[in-house]
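Researcher: Let's try something more involved. This one mixes different molecule types, so please make sure each is placed in the same coordinate frame as the others.
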Amino acid sequence: MSFTLPEPEQALLAAQNVTMRFGGIVAVNDMSLALPKGSICGIIGPNGAGKTTMFNILSGFYTPTEGDVLYQGHSVKRLKPDQVCKLGIARTFQNIRLSSQMTVLENVMVGCHVRRHCSWWMAALGLPNYYREEREIREKARRLVEKVDLADMVNEKAGSLPYGAQRRLEIARALATEPKLLLLDEPAAGMNPQESLDLMHFIRQIRDEFGLTILLIEHDMKVVMGVCEYIWVMEYGAPIAEGEAADIQSNPEVIRAYLGDDFVKGDQE
Amino acid sequence: MQFNRNTFICLALMLAGGLFLTQADLFLSDYQLYICKLFFINAILALSLNLIYGFTGMFSLGHAGFMALGAYMAALCILPPEQKEMMWILEPIIWPFSDLFTPFWLAVILGGLVALVFAFIIAVPALRLGDDYLGIATLGFAEIIRVLLTNATPITNGSLGIKGIPDAATLVTCYVWMLITLVVISRIVYGNFGNVLRCIRDNEIAAQVMGINVFAYKVMSFCVGAFFAGVGGALLASHLSTIDPKMFNFLLTFNVLMFVVAGGLGSLSGSVIGAGIITVLLEWLRAIEEPMEFLGMEIPGIPGMRMVVFSLVLLAIILYRREGIMGSREITLAGIARFFRRFTQTAGRAGQ
Amino acid sequence: MSLEMFFQHCFNALTLGSLYALIAIGYTMVYGVLRLINFAHGDILMVGAYFVFFGTFAFGWPWGVSAIVAVAGASLLGVLVERVAYRPLREAPRISALISAIAVSFFIESLAVVVFTGQPRPVLQPDWLISEWQLGNIRVLKLTAFVPVMTAVLVAGLLYILYRTKPGLAMRAISKDIETTRLMGVRVDNIIAFTFAVGSALAAASGIMWALRYPQVHPYMGIMPGLKAFVAAVVGGIGSVQGAVIGGVILGFVEIMSIAFFPELSGYRDAFAFIILVLVLVFKPTGLLGEDLKEKI
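Model: All components are placed in one shared frame. Result:
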């Protein structure tokens, strides 16, 4: 089965020749990608290749210096992170960003906020539909917490959770915003092989259950090769290769980027 | 409104408190009534600052400015026009303030609204700043408000201030306004909007990614806080009957900050308790500024000693018990019930 | 406005600006190493001025001796404040230290009220400072020339310490990364104490000259200059000594010149600094020479 990339207009999310400069530094250089609806794709590359910068562009933290970002055919490059989220793009962070003083449930409830209808003054007045919605949010959050296997820690402070659980909680919180596209920044970082295996299973499961499209950054090659249908490889901000997992594994450019020139030469001799 | 048992108990308690206070002048001296009113007003101020700082994490040092606006607005509203004409001796008072005459409840609301409008204007430049910069900027705004009040003589009577403001803020009025503040702020804070505010406090970037318009919610929290600061200022003006621009200096903000820190950041019941304890403490400390007799020796009064002790108390709190009296916990009906259950159990066990 | 008047105002502005600059340096240095607004800084200025008042007035010491004693005493006080109120909170949230700083500031002020009483006291001005020079049509009070010159000398000394000595190197290293500096074997606590000593000494120097310029001392004299000097530090870019000097001078000129040209605005004098602050924070939050301290995503 071969994997065909969609045209940018048909893709759920597409980056077109995106370049990001900070002063004199080019963090991302002429990067393009297109995500088919319902796929799981990955961006890999050595440290400092510009992967997280790319995520920050896609999620609205940076406006690219050149190029465009299309979401369902519309440009979103000038939108702010919260507007991007409202459209249906959620993300997690490489360095986990939870409210450590708040409970697991409260953290997920914050994620539910973006889809609510009541305004704050309805809360101040204590209107009945506010209370109804509040109950619904609580229920929804509880279901999501169960989904990521944290049901028995629902009232724990998020900061007291073990690392893996914090990562799952961050995903639950992202799912609470009802995204169509989920960006995962190094979801397997700091996990042992068994946990990584479970994570792969989990990523596929949420894709199917919530009808998501997923783009992930990852260093754990087992996860990337195991779960991603299509992969882009970056080095020094620029794309150096793209393709399906098997092609990427044997691509000499990629091997060079990860292991250095000597390795490729030595291999050929 | 959601009617369950807890709501009924709360309502009943509030009503009982109100009824009790209507009869308070039978058994409290004038001085005690004075402190009581001051306590309710201070609680309003503490609650409003706690919303801004404790729950949303915006270090605002501009409370005195908002209070000043509320106080002046309310004073202009409830002073009879003839009295105003007589008092403005430097420059005559200008219309519409000269003819403004409203009932007290409206004056208090108008006071709050003026503070809210100013807060909104301030919010746009200031709330983009991080914690300590925001503190200085809001402190600067409070100073600007004070300078404006001093110089807008045709409205504010300049540095002479306003005297003889009718004492319309009765004990029950202050109590009711405190309850309104408490109910409104607790409803905002103890629901998902509160979660949103605390998420902004803890991790602004995460909040943005969750689709929260961080700036809008900061403005909301800041303006609601400023509204109640204005309300508190309005009540204070009527309570003290005299106001002038000098009164609303940084020391006033410092007092309010003290209530909040002592009570516990992020705890509404803490704010009320903090306001209560420190209001009483401040009055009680007046004693040490007066001459007294100790072991037959005459000790002369030391003016200013009150503030020395007061600042040492704040220093001690921040150094040794940073989370304040309540931390971020709350006194709830369920908590009280649990306490009594445990109390009776231990008592029963001890009796066996 | 005549040209003579204009030059007169220029000298006044430069004097005021120099005073602000000296105070602003202390703010900027402490902010650089600890990321803390040292609210008590203005009060250290006040204490320095009081030391001089007592030295000259009560003990009848000569001016130079009183000034040296005052500067030393203020440095000591600065170090003491750091030791008691800031060091225990080094690991606490930044706001806790800020509240602690506010508490210390009020403590020093109210203690000064108790000890020195709230009455403003006149300060003895030495004759050689209040005589005038005649430059053509312009008459210059020697004091208004003395203050900027003294400031320049002190700033030169400070820059020497910062860029030519080991403690200065350590200070600059701490402001970049306190943890790494600690790992390099620098005694961070000592360097921070030294920073407070130097900053407080400069504040005291400014306080003494302030007392000479506006010849009186009172317990609240440090508040407004302190706040405005902080504004100057922000305008110049917090963390940068050169920026603090520039910011201080800018603030001095804005304050004096706006009143010189628009005398009807004199009632709003105290508001200018804060309006400038807001403008700078809105349009260039890092100040003129400051570095961007934005959080990394």
